Description:
Elements: E1 3-11, H1 28-50, E2 57-61, H2 63-69, H3 72-95, H4 102-123, H5 128-137, E3 141-146, H6 159-177, E4 184-185, H7 195-201, E5 206-209, H8 211-215, E6 229-230, E7 236-239, H9 242-249, H10 268-271, H11 274-277, H12 311-339, E8 346-352, H13 363-376, E9 381-383, H14 386-392, H15 423-440, H16 447-463, H17 466-474, H18 478-501, H19 506-515
Parallel strand pairs: 1-2, 1-8, 1-9, 2-3, 3-4, 5-7
Antiparallel strand pairs: 6-7
Helix pairs in contact: 1-4, 1-5, 1-13, 3-4, 6-7, 12-13, 15-16, 15-18, 16-18, 16-19, 17-18
Amino acid sequence: MKGVLSIVLHAHLPFVRHPDYPEFLEEDWLYEAISETYLPLLAVMDRLVDDRVPFQLTMTLSPPLVSMLRDEMLMSRYAARLDKLCELTLREVERTSKDATYGPLARYYRDHFDELRRHFHDRYRRDLVGAFRRLQDAGALEILTCGATHGFLPLMIHPEAVRAQISVAAQHYRMHFGRDPKGIWLPECGYAPGVDAALAREGIRYFFVDTHGVADAVPRPRFGVHAPIFLPSGVAAFARDQESSLQVWSAEHGYPGDGDYREFYRDLGYDGPYDHVKPYVQATGARKNLGIKYHRITGKVALGDKAPYDPHRARERAAQHAGNFLFNRQKQIEHLAAKMGGRPPIVVSPYDAELYGHWWYEGPQFLDFLIRKAAYDQDVFRLASPATYLREVPVQQVATPPTSSWGAGGYAGVWLDPSNDWIYRHLHKASERMIELAKGNDDAPSGLRRRALNQASRELLLAQSSDWAFIMKTGTMVDYAVRRTKDHVLRFTRLYEQLKSDRVDETWLSEIESRDNLFPEIDYRVYR
Length: 528
């Protein structure tokens, strides 16, 4: 083998949990991702393990996502949603029984959702985190942690706030996966000098940056972005490979835009007869996506002119694209190996996990074909995690990367913009106050006071989520993002004032503890 291909899938969703409502639209982000990404990816990896195909993927499971996947209320709601979708597919089979075009598609979705339900309940026992953990224990998957709530670290001005995001995440990882995290996905690949020191404190060995994060390091890396660099702290940085990433991501030339693949923006929730779909859309009666899509991308035609979807034709296309991707990586790694004087190159290809299945329906099939072809149809590279690469090639150049992210423009412009810059004066002040509380209370406060201090930590972490600033910038669901930011800051402020006056409202505290209930293991002293 001449080199390594490391495919990295970043799975993260903001913490959305609303027990005070029987249904909440933003909870659909989780339910759609389970049906369209997490269950299909688990099925692919489990089949590969069952078939004894040698491979190793790398995947982030962010702490908010892990918390939601292990929340019984949310999993019960997902199970109910899945039951309703199975019911709808049966009704669709009946409605299209005499339609030669859409009848077979309706039967395809009936079988597909029945299989999802069997996997969720029978194979995985409603515990997807446990299923991912078993894959890691089997050596097929390297699971990364992330920032505690995906806070954008370069814009945090208090070192204690940066350390808390990392320390809380590492502790959460140990609790759920029974081992220390070897690597971390810095939220938005956001790195700034000093962040690595907080990683080293937790024993984290490596992280990722965008291409320029390594290419512009000082001194200039001898092997470019196809070997990691060690920072003076001893933590390694791996860079995104542009060539392999763009082959999938590119809006113009990426695989997911092929005309044979399923069209994301045509959905039965909007296309179906209203009375037929009404029981399955929003409680208000407003339409929404249901995940039953009968059309393919087709080409540059109006949405209403999309041709019917053919799952078998799309699957064949996924196999062809997997072969093309394999061929290109072989040639790329052969070229790199020849230039690197015998040192094996590593090509790091990171993607948002939700690309595979949610946005690109055939993405999990593409991965299945690619992994099998890589195992049996070539001998140039193998699929391995960055941790495996560091173990096998432990000597690397020492260099210092600059501040960077993988957002548009490569720095902090997405998360510090006229649309969202107002949040930071509040986040910085709350961080300052949380540090004050942590330092000003002894190690054994009363039970009620400790609960309030820990809840203040949770509210600050939730307010820091980079998702809210991102949503404000992109203009989708802005009202929700603004409300979440304000709600968490206001709850933190109220807790701060009650703690300073030594008058904690236990009834209200219990209410917000039950609503914002992630990190039950948190200890406010992390902010010291």
